[in-house]
Amino acid sequence: MITAVRGVLEAVGPEWAIVGVGGLSLRIFAPTTTLNALPPIGQTIHLHTYFQVREDALALYGFQSPDDLAFFEQLIAVSGVGPKLALAMLSSASSDTLRAAIASEKAENLTKIPGIGRKLAGRLILELRGKIVSPEQGPPPVEAIPDVDVIEALVGLGYTPADAQAAIRSLGPNPPAELEERIRQALRYFART
After folding, report:
1. pTM over 0.90
2. Does residue 146 have a pLDDT over 60?
3. I want to staple 62 with a disulfide (CB 3.0 to 4.6 A). Which of 29, 30, 46, 161 is the partner?
4. Distances in Å between the alpha carbon of 32 and those of 20, 52, 66, 85, 91?
5. CATH superfamily entry for domain 66-128
6. Domains of the chain: which residue ranges?
């Protein structure tokens, strides 16, 4: 696996940079934040990379810092987010801005990014909550995530993750054992509000 590339910058395009390494020229896809920070052509650069191997293609994605690379890897681990969409997200907003939107569960901030609808924004928040720390938040409190299956069902119906958690809290300390009944009772919470 290729974890980093150090070489001479040969060219820069709208979504990529070509880096000469040991007689080879590598095309490395990168977010605009990384591309805008590159030195002039002919200078030596160092990028932290993610190497994607697919049946029909090989692709290399580069980032300025290990932190940006780690965040990219968290994004592509979410169902429905591939490398190209994750790159578009990191090109549209800084990783700190995206982390803050996910950590604070602000789906409306995520839906401003092209390619991110309300459903995908909810999934990003649901799957990355607790794993992403907003820079101003510090580490998240340690607490159990209540009934993930019910949250996923409610988010799939269009409710926000925060609303879904409120509905789950309304079930009380002894919720029914059957998933369908827990979902039914959670939906009753929305009927009352």
Report:
1. no
2. no
3. 30
4. 20, 19, 16, 13, 5
5. 5' to 3' exonuclease, C-terminal subdomain (1.10.150.20)
6. 4-63, 66-128, 148-192
